[in-house]
Amino acid sequence: MIEIRISGFGGQGIIRCGLIIGKAASLYDGKSATLTQSFGPEARGSACSAQVVIDEERVLYPYITVPNILVAMSQEAYSKFSSNLKEGGTLLIDTDLVKLDQKKDKVKLYAIPATRIAEEMGNKIIANIVMLGFFTAVTKIISKDAARDSISGSVPERFVELNIKAFDRGYEYGENLLGENA
């Protein structure tokens, strides 16, 4: 069983990112997945997170206890959730929005300038999908094809092409990063 927390602030598409991961795992990769979400009353701009549990077997408890993976797309999210990450777990951060407060030597750290890449593509709202591509490449929990198929049914039709391009950019960044560390 893999426990994942995707975190950031409202308006970044954090919940949609969790939804796409769960959908990719359950509908296209043949696994079981659950999604729970948490966000402040202000919605846009407040802290939010999506919790995804993925397993080869049926998920009996839908809530995460100690996440294996933390995706932090804001400083507040990193500060709030990083101490709960499982020792030896995986931490993915947006380098433009998250500054580590201490050396993280008990976790696997992967960093991407997701927001900057999205801005270079013309729309910073797709930073979550850039991060999704990076997540997919680095963790290998969901397949690339499953993630791409899930995006198509999870964003408005007129934005599918842009989101697929954003996913591919993040995925490519992750693949290149892994290649450098091999």
In words, what does this structure look like?
The chain has 182 residues and is of the alpha/beta class. It has one domain (2-180): Pyruvate-ferredoxin oxidoreductase, PFOR, domain III (Pyruvate-ferredoxin Oxidoreductase, domain 3), CATH 3.40.920.10. 40% of the residues lie in helices and 21% in strands. It has a six-stranded mixed sheet with strand order 2-3-1-4-5-6, sandwiched between helices. α1 packs across α5 and α3 (114-120) packs across α4. The longest helix is centred in the last third of the chain and has 21 residues, at 160-180. The radius of gyration is 15 Å and the shape is globular. The model has no long low-confidence stretch (mean pLDDT 92).
Domain count: the total is 1
Give the neighbour order of strands across the main sheet.
2-3-1-4-5-6
Provide the structure class: alpha/beta
Q: Give the proportion of residues in helices.
A: 25-40%
Which CATH class applies here?
Answer: Alpha Beta
**SS field, number of helical segments:** 6
By CATH, the superfamily comes out as: Pyruvate-ferredoxin oxidoreductase, PFOR, domain III
Note poorly predicted spans. Answer: none
Termini, distance in Å?
Answer: 26 Å
CATH topology: Pyruvate-ferredoxin Oxidoreductase, domain 3
The backbone outline, from C-alpha atoms, is globular
User: Which second-level CATH architecture applies?
Assistant: 3-Layer(aba) Sandwich
Order of helices and strands: EHEEEHEEHHHH
Give the averaged pLDDT, no decimals: 92
Radius of gyration: 15 Å
Largest sheet: 6 strands, mixed
Count every beta strand, where a strand is a DSSP E run of 2 or more residues: 6
> What percentage of amino acids are in beta strands?
15-25%
